[in-house]
Design a protein that fits this description.
The complex is a heterodimer. Chain A is 79% helix and 0% strand. Chain B is α+β, with helices and mostly antiparallel strands. The chains are: A mainly alpha, B alpha+beta.
């Protein structure tokens, strides 16, 4: 299959993830959107790696997966703390940065 | 001949500066010593200059003192210089001597005023400015003094600034004077333009030469317009028709101020100025006729208003306006030394009258209402005595000072040859009536003067009963010595002052007219009228004076009498009209002040409210507010909004980074034309500098590129001259984006 297909899919994944982050008010869904964005990036890495015959892309993909795991751990911990503090995970109500 | 004339104005200025800086902490006696000492020193210098130095120097243009160059710009050179001749010297003596007396009087009058030092500082400042005015050797220096006395007048009218009426009176004086000052400036500019000098002796010389000032201008001569505009300045400063309205209101100031500034000195500045510039006026009988007519009409008009005023100081204010009218009628008929003579005698008797007014008001607990006075003859004997003398002087009773000076003005008006075309070639036939008409009006005014002054005297001093309440009556007392002393000196001046200007011609001893003798080198020979005429007018004016006094006695002798009541009952509306000063203030308010206010309001609305407030201030605030609200929206604290902005930014950078860049940073191709040969360079922006781009150059815009490749420059030779469009297409092969640049070239 041509590399373009993978790249298109990767872009679509990234867009869906972005839309999730920007539009959903639930923090959990927003975290899932970030996960999708990262995976879109991963797919593009792998597609170029295959196209160019270079394993560096795979290495990057692994690093990103590790990073995504760490991000999920930290993100979920913040989420739990947020819920404890305000009994909600709605992002509209978490506007502490305003002050 | 040089003399240290600068000392004369400098001493009062120093006094004012010292009092303004330190006076507030000092005891009253110290303040008085500094203030009166300054003016006394100045007085001594003036006497020394006038009586010892000046007689030796009279031929050479008097005493002269150059302090330094003030303005030097191209052909214009103005020195800060003073000059004393007989005319300015006489004025100096009046100012410093009467000024000194009034300083002494004020020490009693202002005794309990908390602003004692400020009052004396202003008084000193005034004397200094007035001395600069009379001593100034050039019109600009004179103008410094002219404006300086206006400022001091404003400050002193509004001296008790906590009352709105006083502040308004000060403003009225200042603004009315401003109108006159514009005239003075225009006159000054005209004289400079046509004589090339602002120096008074040089202007006088040019005027006596005639030529420059006799050029036609605006349907008359330069001299006419210059004289007329200068006279506009004089009508403001000297309270003549139509700008007299400020002077009655100026009585809001302390009484010594009314005596010094608004009777004896400042208001005579206009008369002095006309006498100073007499050479210019003599060139233009038309302007002199205007001066004389305005003076005569003012004299009569103000005298009539004086008939019905019930405030002591208001009567004296209108009297001052009227007497200034006499002076202008004098100088306007070419009788300059008579005008100056009346200025001199008036300074004494009017200062005396005003100070008596202050003394009476002091006794009456501050009230100047003459309807509640009466019978004060025995209660304030010294004040009464002084007032009596000054009253006889202003009425023109024989051998008191006003008799001589007023008589010489009236006689001069009838006898003048200025307006006689047969004798004065400059005068037109149509002016022949002016002298006689002015004389008749002045005689009526003299009758009026005797009447209103006698009314004032009888209502205040005669009779046996004071019409005031018991409480006020109980307080009536003679003023302290500091006030009575200067009064007595002024009374002596008012009684004997006339003897410096005896009608020498009549007595076969011309040299007995000391004043005319001294003024002759400055103002030229005094006017001569026939002996029969002179005796006739003398008798006539005595009859008029006694008639006015007799009429007033019938009406007011010993208090309000039957004829006065009958007259008031017979014509109540007329009496009210006169009491309301013919409602001239209301007329000005309607004709001038109201439109000016309307215009100001319009400008305020358009310029201030809309342009400045709305557009500049409000518009700026609106822009800042708009930017702020955008920034506030971005900083809403909502994470997702931050993310959205972030995403938009990334997308924008991604878009820009994939463009060949030309369209963003330079839309212009670099084109060099050399005959038919053209070099084109599609220069790249530095961001895309190391990117490989494909260029295609279409030099004649026919869709078929002549040159293609990776080089950004190309070279083309056109077959024939003409105007062509060069179209360059730039492609970025790695992103597939492209942009097109076009430019017209003209080859010859």
């Amino acid at each position: 299959m041509p590399t373009t297909y993978y790249l298109v899919l990767s872009f679509v994944l990234f867009l869906i993830g972005t839309a999730g982050v920007l539009l959903r008010r639930n923090a959990l869904i927003a975290l899932m959107g970030i996960e999708l964005q990262l995976n879109g990036g991963n797919l593009a890495m792998l597609a170029f790696s295959r196209e160019l015959g270079d394993l560096k892309g795979h290495v990057f993909a692994f690093i990103i997966i590790a990073l995504a795991a760490a991000e999920a751990a930290v993100g979920l911990a913040i989420l739990v703390a947020l819920f404890r503090g305000r009994q909600t995970v709605n992002l509209d109500e978490a506007t502490l940065m305003k002050r | 001949m040089t003399f240290n004339l600068r000392l004369i104005p400098l001493l009062p200025f120093l006094g004012a500066a010292i009092l303004m800086l330190f006076g507030r902490k000092w005891k009253r006696d110290t303040v008085l010593i500094v203030a009166a000492g300054a003016i006394a020193g100045s007085c001594l210098v003036a006497f020394d200059a006038f009586f010892t130095a000046l007689p030796r120097a009279a031929a050479g243009g008097g005493l002269h003192d150059v302090v330094g160059t003030w303005i030097a710009a191209g052909s214009l050179k103005v020195d800060l210089a003073f000059r004393m001749d007989a005319l300015s010297g006489l004025l100096c003596l009046i100012i410093t001597f009467i000024g000194f007396l009034i300083h002494l009087y004020s020490s009693g009058y202002m005794e309990h005023d908390p602003d004692y030092p400020r009052f004396f500082a202003y008084l000193n400042l005034f004397c200094g400015s007035m001395l600069v005015l009379v001593l100034g050797d050039s019109l600009p220096v004179m103008f410094i003094g002219w404006e300086g006395v206006g400022l001091c007048s404003y400050l002193l009218i509004g001296f008790w600034y906590t009352s709105n009426a006083n502040a308004d009176a000060g403003k009225k004086a200042f603004i009315t004077n401003r109108i006159g000052d514009l005239g003075f400036l225009i006159g000054m500019f005209l004289l400079y333009q046509y004589t090339g000098s602002l120096n008074i002796p040089e202007i006088t010389a040019a005027a006596q030469g005639g030529g420059a000032l006799m050029q036609p201008l605006w349907g008359a001569t330069v001299a006419f317009w210059a004289a007329l505009f200068l006279f506009v300045g004089a009508t403001g400063k000297s309270a003549q028709l139509p700008l007299y309205v400020w002077l009655p209101d100026a009585m809001a100031g302390p009484t010594p101020v009314s005596a010094l500034i608004h009777a004896a000195t400042m208001v005579t500045a206009g008369v002095y100025m006309v006498a100073r510039m007499h050479a210019v006026y003599l060139l233009t009988p038309g302007a002199m006729a205007i001066v004389a007519i305005v003076g005569a009409l003012t004299a009569l008009f103000a005298a009539i208003i004086g008939f019905a005023q019930n405030d002591f100081k208001k009567v004296l204010a209108y009297s001052t306006i009227s007497q200034l009218g006499f002076m202008f009628a004098g100088v306007g008929t070419g009788n300059f030394d008579a005008g100056v003579f009346h200025l001199f005698t008036h300074a004494f008797f009017k200062a005396g009258l005003f100070l008596c007014a202050g003394s009476v008001m002091h006794a009456m607990g501050g009230s100047g209402d003459i309807t509640i006075m009466g019978g004060l003859r025995k209660k304030v004997p010294w004040t009464h005595g002084v007032f009596f003398v000054c009253w006889l002087a202003i009425c023109g009773v024989p051998f008191f000072s006003g008799f001589f000076s007023k008589d010489s003005i009236i006689g001069g008006a009838f006898g003048t040859e200025i307006f006689d075309a047969a004798i004065n070639p400059l005068a037109g036939e149509h002016l022949a009536w002016v002298g006689k008409a002015v004389g008749v009006v002045l005689m009526l005014a003299a009758l009026g003067t005797a009447f209103y002054m006698s009314r004032l005297y009888f209502l205040v001093f005669s009779g046996s009963e004071t019409r005031a309440s018991d409480e006020i009556k109980h307080h009536i007392h003679e003023s302290p010595g500091a006030m009575v002393g200067p009064l007595v000196v002024l009374a002596i001046g008012a009684a004997l002052g006339g003897f410096i200007g005896l009608p020498g011609g009549l007595l076969d001893h011309p040299e007995w007219n000391l004043l005319a003798d001294r003024l002759r080198p400055v103002l030229g020979p005094e006017m001569e009228i026939s002996r029969a005429m002179e005796i006739g007018f003398m008798v006539g004016s005595v009859v008029l004076a006694l008639g006015g006094i007799g009429l007033a006695y019938l009406f007011y002798g010993g208090g309000y009498r039957e004829p006065a009541r009958k007259f008031a009952a017979a014509a109540p509306r007329f009496v009210q009209l006169v009491r309301d000063k013919f409602r001239i203030d209301e007329l000005y308010g309607f004709l001038i002040i109201r439109p000016v206010k309307a215009i100001a309001k319009g400008i305020f609305f358009v310029v201030d409210r809309i342009l400045i407030d709305g557009f500049l201030v409000g518009g700026l605030a609106w822009v800042v507010d708009l930017v702020g609200s955008i920034a506030r929206w971005l900083q809403g604290g909502d994470v997702q909004r931050y993310m959205a902005v972030f995403a938009i930014g990334v997308a924008a950078i991604a878009y820009l980074a994939t463009q060949p860049m030309h369209t963003f940073f330079s839309n212009a191709l670099k084109v060099t034309v050399n005959g038919l040969t053209v070099d084109v360079d599609a220069h790249r922006g530095s961001i895309a500098a190391n990117r490989v781009l494909d260029y295609s150059f279409d030099f004649d815009d026919d869709g078929k590129p002549e040159v293609t490749g990776v080089a950004s420059g190309a070279h083309h030779v056109y077959p024939q001259p003409g105007t062509y469009t060069v179209r360059v297409k730039v492609k970025d092969p790695s992103w597939g984006t492209s942009s097109t640049l076009t430019q017209k070239v003209e080859v010859r």
